[in-house]
């Protein structure tokens, strides 16, 4: 058999992605509450949700939703007979974590969280989502995430200027031994504060890089044992990201950024930054659960970098 004939038969045997038909488009409209637009040459159906409920300025100048303040979700057939969705949600700081929890609980993935502007007021964050499934499942998940925005803005028209909970005291008095015992490491102390780091390894430009080059997960505590905050960073491979996000959100720890720190590393790492408030040992247990989830993913083969 000639090579060209073999190639034709091979590719003809592969499952072909079906067009996203009118029934699926109508279901997406119905469940999201929006009227989408279909792009035939890409076979994509896209719904949009302009943020008109809160006025945003950059350098004091009003920003129209057309200039990048519009949430969206785009649907297209996958190769297995279902649909995939990708999207970007325009969120204010006090909306991010409730929306993220709703998205994760609905089966969506959260793939990035970052800013798009400087000098905007109020501050705007952008949360990227993805997922695979039926039109009903994906559209309902997008709607559930966006409904959280309405709940939050319905309770308070203007975005909050701080995290929920009482102010953390300026004087630091964290008991290091208690957190050491939970995290299973010997952390560093500094003027009543505490910090622990968990190094990972990667290959980059022909060299092994690790903890001191920034390939690490870390946590820093300040305040008192009863009223503390923790901030830090998780270094994760792609297969670890969603389980770690779920573990941190279930522990009530806020996610404040998801992005890359490097290029050309192997395996590729994604980094998330977090901020939690509350009892110091309770926060440490939440981090421990996320670390355990991450290490379980590594052992299962979903993570490539070792600790």
The order of strands across the largest sheet is 1-2-5-6-9-7
The tally of strands reads 18
Number of domains: 2
- Percent helix among the residues? 25-40%
CATH class of the largest domain: Alpha Beta
What would the average pLDDT be, to the nearest integer?
Answer: 92
Query: Alpha-carbon distance between the termini?
Result: 51 Å
* CATH-defined architecture of the largest domain: 2-Layer Sandwich
Number of helices: 7
Describe the structure.
- By secondary structure, the protein is α+β, with helices and mostly antiparallel strands.
- It has two domains: 13-155, Alpha-Beta Plaits (2-Layer Sandwich), CATH 3.30.70; 176-299, Alpha-Beta Plaits (2-Layer Sandwich).
- The chain has seven helices and 18 strands.
- The chain has helices at residues 3-13, 22-32, 96-105, 135-155, 176-183, 238-250, 280-299, and strands spanning 37-39, 44-50, 57-58, 61-62, 70-77, 83-92, 109-114, 120-121, 124-133, 188-190, 193-199, 202-204, 207-209, 216-223, 228-236, 254-259, 265-266, 270-278.
- The strands form four sheets. It has a six-stranded antiparallel beta sheet. The protein has a six-stranded antiparallel beta sheet with strand order 10-11-14-15-18-16. A three-stranded antiparallel beta sheet has the order 4-3-8, with no helix packed on it.
- A hairpin with a 2-residue loop joins strand 12 and strand 13 (207-209).
- Helix 6 (238-250) packs antiparallel against helix 7.
Q: What labels describe this entry?
A:
six-stranded antiparallel sheet; 33% strand; 7 helices; Alpha-Beta Plaits; 307 residues; 2 domains; globular; alpha+beta; 31% helix
